[in-house]
Specification:
With about 160 residues, this protein is α+β, with helices and mostly antiparallel strands. It has 4 helices and 7 strands, in the order ααααβββββββ. The longest helix has 15 residues, at about 15-30. The chain is elongated, with a radius of gyration of 18 Å.
Length: about 160
């Protein structure tokens, strides 16, 4: 199950389906009727996808780390929602993954933001600016439940 889930995450969260499918077909083409090792798969996928995915292979296949992303808080620049908001997220466990954030505003606007895995290279807390035009009513991480977060209880924030 872990391998299937990992490949699904790789296809639908980290790469898009076009890049994943191309890389997977390249792997099949290069290694058909041979005896590939896991490293051959990893190397081919990196090469054909055009991205260094070694962080993913290490975390997903060589460790038992868990994923726990959460929302630390939301604040407004100069206490004015029309000037934007600062949203702070955290990675509470060892596994790092990209972050998908859905932000809803009081005026009905909403936006889904994808943050790359590289944000976690600077530490386990990340704050980003969201260009709000009205007060934020909710923030939700991984709105489509694509990632295996061990504590989904800290994935949402509601305005009070």
């Amino acid at each position: 199950d872990k391998t299937a889930l990992g490949l699904d995450i790789l296809r639908n969260v980290i790469l898009d389906s076009t890049r994943f499918d191309y890389a997977f077909k390249t792997y099949i083409s290069r290694w058909a009727f041979k005896h590939p090792q896991p490293e051959d798969f990893f190397r081919t996928m990196n090469d054909a996808a055009g991205e260094d995915l070694n962080w993913f292979w290490k975390e997903w296949f060589f460790t038992t780390w868990k994923l726990d992303q959460g929302i630390r808080g939301v604040s407004y620049i100069n206490n004015d929602p029309s000037q934007g908001a600062l949203i702070t997220i955290a990675n509470f466990d060892k596994m790092a993954m990209p972050v998908i954030v859905q932000v809803k505003e009081e005026n009905g606007n909403y936006q889904t933001i994808k943050l790359p895995v590289e944000i976690w290279q600077r530490g386990n807390v990340w704050t980003f600016k969201y260009n709000s035009t009205s007060p934020i009513t909710s923030v939700l991480l991984d709105p489509d439940n694509l990632l295996p977060d061990v504590n989904p209880g800290n994935n949402s924030w509601q305005a009070q």
